[in-house]
Amino acid sequence: MTPNKDLKTYSLRETPYFKIYGRTDRTQDPLPLFFNGSGIEVNVTGSELWIDIDVDYEMHEPWVYTTLNGSFMSRQMLTTGSYSLCLFRSMSPEAVKNICLFRELQAMSEDNVCRLLIKGFRSDGDFLPVTDRPFKLEFIGDSITSGEGTYGAKEDTDWLPMYMSTSRNYARMVSDALNAEYRIISQGGWGVLCGWDNDPRHNIPSHYEKICSFAKGKMNEKLGAGKPYDFESWKPDAVIVNLGTNDASAFNQPEWTDPVTGQVFFQRREADGTYNQEDLGRFKQAVRNFLHMLRKNNPGSHILWCYGMLGYDLTFAITDAMNSYQKETGDSNLAFLQLPNTTDETVGSHAHPGKKSHARAAKVIIEYLQSVLYRPL
Question: Helix H segments across the chain?
């Protein structure tokens, strides 16, 4: 199926009204969508609407989902090339339709050519202003925040893009419930100090101040992924961190050796199974350092550290680090929130939290954020 020849073509720069979600370099044309949860929203009349995109990948294909008037409408894998996706057709032309397209797949640090670019639209209608939402929320995390496991059966254990999502993600559930605009910074397998396998290069804080330096290679460099992020351009009411799960896993893995320098990194356990206190202290310092970074870049935001969807191993270490940071700085605009652990009834594919687990976590976060966002000034 191809677009109607009578439709008017708009480049993104020619589209009069739209809203972009997610961190990106807005000077780019076409516009890259780097993160899961990044996307575009329009209000448009007319009977038909198509979006023009450019897609490439080597190993991990992007997935997207769409909503129509706030209701989930479609989810699909994208193939390589420049082409158009139909967002609706044969609808009543006079009615205003609210349409969103969101990237499902996280930024792919393992695929240097993985890209999703928005080029523009084709429509027989008029574009109308998009209403701003009352709140802004930023979510920072690992595979849980990348929505890994939210699609697929419990028996499915392959690590594949089709099992990751924003559409069934706790971040979207929270944001929808609070009518909030949101941004996600997440990377499966990464932590505050190191990755699940003790790789110290795989820590979120070292990439937080760039637009999306998880996306590597010459193509992503040209798209602005490695540029400094402009924190003044989008100020979240709350920053929700969900990290520590992979840092806990590192204590159960062999040492990691840098293939270039030969340097060894290892989060150790003692003979009795307890955490090595020096290494645990290294993790706590990483938490404190990240809190300093978050506050520096988000001076007015409430910082909420969530943890527990895949175990509570580092709960005390995280809260101890947060308490130390608070005593050191006097910063009281932060809190810790324990989330419900994933059970046999709520687990999804790849032994990760499923849709039910995300819904349980979202309920806890929603109730807490309502007390923060709606409190009287």
Answer: 170-177, 218-222, 245-250, 277-297, 315-329, 355-373
